[in-house]
Structure formats: C-alpha cells, structure tokens
Amino acid sequence: MIKKILHHMKDEGCGDFCCTKIENFSVKSGELTVFKEVNVHIHCGELTAIIGANGAGKSTFLRAVLGEIPHGGTLTFVGANGEKTKKPVIGYVPQELTFDRTAPISVSDLFAAALGRFPVWLSTKKSAMKRIEAALNRVKAEYLIDRRLGALSGGELQRVMLALSLDPLPNLLLLDEPISGVDYEGRALFLEIVSSLREKEDMAILLVSHDLDLVKKYADKVIVMEHGIKAAGTPEDVFDKINGADRYNGRLGSGNNI
What we know:
This protein is an alpha/beta fold. It folds into 2 domains: 4-8 and 10-89 and 171-181 and 202-238, P-loop containing nucleotide triphosphate hydrolases (Rossmann fold); 98-168, no CATH class. It has 7 helices and 9 strands; from the N terminus they run E-E-E-H-E-E-H-H-H-E-H-E-H-E-E-H. The protein has helices spanning 58-66, 107-115, 126-138, 154-165, 184-201, 212-218, 235-240, and strands spanning 17-29, 32-43, 47-51, 72-79, 90-93, 172-176, 204-208, 221-225, 229-233. The strands form 2 sheets. It has a 6-stranded mixed β-sheet with strand order 5-6-7-3-8-9, sandwiched between helices. A 3-stranded antiparallel β-sheet has the order 2-1-4, covered by helices on one side. Helix 3 packs across helix 4. It is globular, with a radius of gyration of 19 Å. Residues 1-13 and 247-258 have low confidence and may be disordered.
C-alpha cells in the first residue's frame, strides 16, 4: 500500500497540486477599495482560516479567488515540481442556500439536478445513486439522502452542501462562513469533517469564519483581514495579538504575508 504524502509533512513533498499563490491581490468597487495588497500561499493539506469584522473583505476575497469578480494582482496554481500548473478543481460552500423550503425537493433531487444531464423527475440511475451516497458518506450524512431539503436543520443542510462541493473531489476547497447560524454541536461536527478531509485527501482549504474558538482548534494558519491583511500566522501567534476590545480594530500587529 502506497502511503499518501501530505504537503505539510516536512521535506516529504506533496501531491500533483501543491499550492495556490495569491500575490498583491486587490479588489475595487467603483472608487471604494474593498481590499488591497493581499499575499497568501494556500498549501495542500492545510486549513487556512480568514477572520475579521463584517465588511472587511473576506467573502469578496473568496469570490475573487473563484473568478466571480475582477481583481488586481496574480493568482497562480503551482504543482509539486514548483512549476505553474493548470487550474485545479475548486469546491465552494456558500454561507447559505436560498430556496423554497416548502418545495418537495429531496437531498437526492438536489444532487441529481447538480450532477446529472437529465431532468430530476426521470429515474435516477443506480450509478448516480451510488455516487450521491458516496458523497454524503464523506460528510457523515448518508442518512439524509431521501430527506426533504426544507426539513433539514441548518447544520445538516450545510453538510449536504459540503458533500455537493466534494463531487468531483476538489484540490482547493473554499468555505464562506458555512457554519454561520448553526448550533455549536453542528459547527464542531462540520469542522471535524473538514479537518479530516484536509488530512485524508491532502486538500487545500480556505475557511471564512467568525467562530474564533473553533478556528483556533482546527486551523493551521489564520489571516485577519481588514481591507487587507492585518495579521497572519499560526493560530497561536495570531490569537496572542487579539485581546478584548482590540480584537478587530487594526492593532493586531504587522505582516501581510502568509
């Protein structure tokens, strides 16, 4: 059996996809600068968390990485050999899914609509059902396959959205406040699953979150954004700079690279 080598294991290399290099990133909206001079390296096998006040540019940053909005600076995907490579598979989980909660749509219907080429009212092939079951199994939600979407709790719905983002399995996973409004037990379970994915699949993960306790527990690196990077480093280094009322007021130390 071949042992899977993760990027964060020192001097042992990594898989075909190594990291995402984001250099001098900036986004403007008219005359307003949403953020500028952001420099980040997102490595495979690592979970990088972005924290900061509302309006600091966190979600806009993710949308720029996704290519949904124009940006300045460069975004480079690097392979294991250190050379530029093709765009990796990117998964994305938004803060919430807006839909009619009274509609008779099941979890399997959602997957069939997203992954299939035929209308969902036609019978779903056995191969497709196995694919859906496998995706839900990754997030400990296989029991939800026939559940109506409107009947899911907030945490269950976000795990379903996470499962959907994992098909096909991404190299880079972007999570935009995916556990906002979810109870503590649901938030902890979600991040336990994400942490397991990082380790088992050698996945690069970028998480936006306001839950500082869980960020400190699960993140490998933390970025504090305030229209740019105000602090960056290990959770221990960054949280040592955060205290009381000064948490997001800009007095978090220097450094704009991670």
